[in-house]
Automatic annotation (TrEMBL):
It comes from the Eukaryota. InterPro entries: Ig-like_dom, Ig-like_dom_sf, Ig-like_fold, Ig_sub, Ig_sub2, Ig_V-set, Zig-8. SUPFAM superfamilies: Immunoglobulin (SSF48726). GO terms for cellular component: neuron projection membrane. Gene3D superfamilies: Immunoglobulins. GO terms for biological process: synapse organization. This is Ig-like domain-containing protein. Residues 1-82, 89-168 form the Ig-like domain. It comes from Meganyctiphanes norvegica.
């Protein structure tokens, strides 16, 4: 979604030589001079007057734009400079605990792998946008650097009503979500209770299966004996 810039500086070009950009994937000539041959309107060549710079601009970069691009000058022999453009998908990742005790603070961190991301990062709880600063309960802070954007969500004095789905939704990246369970002191989390119940039920089930198999074995043995005696008679 960001704009990619590939810079090519050519000194002493003269009046006859031309600078072209080639997409190596399909050997498509994207431009010659400032004239763009690509039908894709996202491509443009930036060349200020009397400048040595011939910059290929690709707006709204997509994953399929990844690959080698070559800046060529039609001299004899040809001179060129190659770039490998890598377009990565920008997405959010939530970091934080799965279980939180009642009365403690819920701290969630949303990391977006996009430098100086444009737009905002929104937080949702069960599909409802969180109101910043509501009753001094919710605190959200966002900051970024040359590597990534980070948004931190803090909810003080957590109670069971704060359990549920928390979604981090950037305006220019894919969202991410996490399930948070607020448990009362001394109470077993639902997942652990389910696991314990499963263990008890599974043990009972296995015992029943063993008894049924033993019964089937006894019945089969009895039928075989009766059939053998009947045959001898």
């Amino acid at each position: 979604g960001q704009t990619a810039y590939l810079h090519c500086q050519v000194a002493q070009l003269g009046d006859k030589a031309q600078v072209s950009w080639i997409r190596k994937r399909d050997l498509h000539v994207l431009s010659s001079g400032v004239i763009v041959f690509a039908s894709d309107q996202r491509y443009q060549v930036i060349h200020p007057m009397k400048s040595e710079n011939w910059t290929l601009q690709i707006k709204f970069a997509q994953l399929r734009d990844s690959g080698i691009y070559e800046c060529q000058v039609n001299t004899n022999p040809k001179i060129y400079l190659s770039y490998y453009l890598t377009v990565v998908e920008s997405r959010a990742m939530i970091q934080g605990p799965e279980y939180v005790k009642t009365g403690s603070t819920i701290n969630l961190t949303c990391v977006v792998n996009q430098a100086y991301m444009q737009g905002l990062i929104y937080w949702y709880h069960n599909h409802e946008m969180l109101q910043y600063g509501k009753k001094n309960e919710v605190t959200i802070s966002t900051h970024g650097d040359h590597r990534q954007m980070t948004s931190q969500l803090s909810i003080a004095s957590a109670s069971p009503r704060h359990s549920g789905n928390y979604t981090c939704w950037p305006t220019s990246a894919k969202p991410n979500w996490a399930i948070i369970n607020v448990v009362v002191e001394g109470e077993q989390p639902a997942a652990m209770q389910t696991g314990a119940a499963c263990r008890n039920q599974c043990s009972t089930y296995l015992l029943a299966v063993v008894l049924i198999l033993q019964l089937c074995k006894l019945v089969s043995s009895s039928l075989y004996t009766d059939s053998f005696l009947l045959y001898r008679r």
